[in-house]
Structures are given as structure tokens and as C-alpha cells.
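BUG: 3D viewer hangs when loading the predicted structure for this chain

Environment: internal workstation, default settings.
Expected: structure renders.
Actual: progress bar stalls at 90%.

Input used:
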Amino acid sequence: MSIDARNTFEPDLGRVRLGASACLLGAQVRFDGGHKQNRFIIDELGAHFDFVPFCPEVAIGMGTPRPAIRLVGDIDAPRVVGSRDAGLDVTEPLRRHSTAAARRLDGLCGFIFKKDSPTCGMERVKVYNDSGMPQADGVGIFAREVLRTKPLLPVEEEGRLNDPVLRENFVSRVYVYARWHALHQRGLSKRGLIEFHARHKLLLMAHSPAAYKELGRMLARFDNARLETLAGRYIAGVMQALKIRASRKRHVNVLQHLLGYLRRHVDGADRGNLVEVIDAYRLGLVPLVVPLTLLEHYFRRNPHPYIAQQVYMNPHPRALMLRNTL
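C-alpha cells produced before the viewer hung:
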């Protein structure tokens, strides 16, 4: 388990493709002709992912600059009209485009939306009632269709990526989904499904011990369902479980589980050191990368085939340093 170089992380996955609101990538497609370029997305994530830009407003021919638009009416089925001119109603063109575009996302393993956007906002988008008062409970018209059409696709808003836990969670889910795509491209099989689960056991344990157990039981009943049916239920359970934030307590549980595989190979002093470092993480004195790095040191000296295959040890490229702030 050597430290991953930036361009050698799971090379069989290639460059994973993500969708993103075009303005976040620096495209001057905002209503005012500007952009909302996000340096973390472009510089940090861009070193590992290929981005496919989307801008629904430009796609339906609104151009830039253009009149600002907003959501009005029913929270669950709002219309999209001009902010200053309610006679400008682009609801139907945006709905048609959103439906068609969402169906063309099969090659993507994640999507990053622009927050607060009437088309791309994922949550808490303002929807104005008949009195002109806003209620921040809406979803952008394009984002809503993506979420409906691709419920397993990992999605996030650029603002929420400022949260270290949400950022790491999103990237982890993207790579799990990419591995699932790779499994399908190789050809889904009973063996492949079981191996996929085996690799992700500790990662699932860190997010939801209950889901980890239930998914294991699901595969144990393999003969009771067709492969495609079971696989669909399985990956839906995996992606739902991974949405649950991996708490410090659950990470500690996994770290202690890992330590159990070293008990016969490290002496009392070294084992005591590992226990102290794991406890320091439990108390919030050191980030997750510290006990993991120490554990990896001992697993290099005492290789274990089960641990060597665990995605939990390296769920994403080290260069992103996502676990340095957990």
C-alpha cells in the first residue's frame, strides 16, 4: 500500500468525468455576462477529474448577458420567469432541456451544482409566492430533473464543498460510483459483485454499520434474485449508506478493527503507540490521516491481503489531502 502519486490513483478508472455548472468552471455564462469560477474545483479537483460543463439558460438560447430569472409559485413545481418581467416565462423550454440533458448523463460519476441558482441550485433555492415573498425551500429546475432521473449519482453544491466532511464524502462517493461503472463495463458477474462488496466493507462500516450488515446479508441471499435486480438493489443501498456522514466515532471503530489485524504482528510498545494515536484522533487532537498513516506503516511491514484491497485505506487520491482536515 504505497502512497499514491497524483496520476496513479487506481489507473484502471482513468480520468473520472464529472458534470458541473459551467459558471463554476470559469465560463462567462451568468445573466450579467460574468462567471463564478471556483478555484478548488478547477485547480484541486481538476487535477484528477474531467469536467463536462452545463448551463441550461444558455442551452435554451437565452444568451449572455440576459434578464435575471427566478422561481415562482408552487415549491414542488415552480415556474421560471423574469425577475423584473414576469411576462418572460422560460419554464417549458427549461423543462424540456433539463429532461433531455439529464438523460445524457450516463458517462458521468458525479455533478457539482451552482448554489442558489433557479436552474442549478440543489437545495434552499428561493421560490417567490404570489405576494412576492421568497421561501428558501426550492430546487433549481435542472437540478431537480437530474436528481429525479439519476438518483444514485453523487451530487453536491459548490458552497457545501467548503465543509471538509461534505467535501471528502462527495469525492469518496464519486469514486465508489466510478468503480461501479467500471464493474459494469467489464461485465457484471456474481464474482465481480461479491469482490466489489469485499473491497468496500470498511468504507461502508465507517458510514453505516447497519447498512454494512444488511448489504452483506443481501448478497448472502444471492440465489433468491436475478443478478441485475440484485445489483440494482445493492448499489442503491451502497450509495444511500454513503450519504450518511462518517462520524469520528465510526472512524474510530474502523481504526480499531484495522488494529485487530496487527495484534499478532506488533509488540506491546508499538501496539500501545497505535492505541494512543487512535485515541488522539477520537479526542479530536489529530486528523484522520495521522492514525491511518501509522497503520499503513505497520501494514507495509506486515502485509494482509484483506486490508490491502480495502478502499477505506485510500478512497481517493492522496494529493487531494481530504483526510488531513477530518
